[in-house]
Glycosyl hydrolase
Amino acid sequence: MRGITLPSWYRTDYDSPAADRYLRGIRATGAEWVTFTPTWYQKRHTDDSLHTTEETASDGSLRRIVRRAHTLGLKVMIKPHVDLPGDEDRADIRPRDRAAWFTSYRRFITHYADLAADTGTERLAVGTELAGVSGDSADWRSVIRAVRDHYDGPLTYAANYDEYRRIHFWKDLDLIGIDAYWPLSATPTTDPARLSRAWKPIKDELAAYAHAQNRRILFTEAGYVSQRGATTAPYSWTVSRDPAPAEQAAAYRALLDSFTGARWWAGVCWWMWDDWPDSGETPVKLAYTPRGKPAEEVLREEWGP
């Protein structure tokens, strides 16, 4: 999978005039896949249900952008998210009534399974970074069975890099999904070789895990802000206020050089192409987007003809 995520933060984002431009930009990197992230919300981490808000991509806009992506020759993964207000972490979701929460969750995820089936979406994630509930294996197997009743394509779950070993339902899915935000360096660096050395023990561990589970591993997310220190905390939007596009580019190159060609590795979907106009809280020069930066050139070199 040569992929890039185009997330949404508002119900009409995917109908934005920028949508076609963003999709063409993604395709021009050599990407063959794009991931979309419709998001439902809950007000508190202990709530027993989730719901749409004005920040949830409308079904119509999602259907239309899937169609546009397919027209451009891009395959699609839909990776629905559940979020909390502000900067609260979805990994902290721990509902008071787990049975009620999973009933609500099945309604949520089968809704997108139907949409994925209707639009010819090529891959679906059944969940993303829900570490507070991902240990409830029997409930997840029930969710997965329900999804398969609605959608016939390959399924994954996007586990955070420090969560994936605690997942016990990988064999019910088609791919192991990992959001690959491993810290690679104690100090900022622009040296791809140094970063590749840091990946080596992680790669060895993942290869063994893929073999033990008899499943390939997909990096459902990986990304780096273009800030000094991005390689020390890839999961952070605010490592520093100092632009460091060379560090971001080095991290892109090291990941691709380290994993491309490994038979057990199913590819990567980079986080993320861009914020929508006027919606980004992080200035573009500091954000995760590779667009217009040396990291985009790395993608073109690695993925181009």
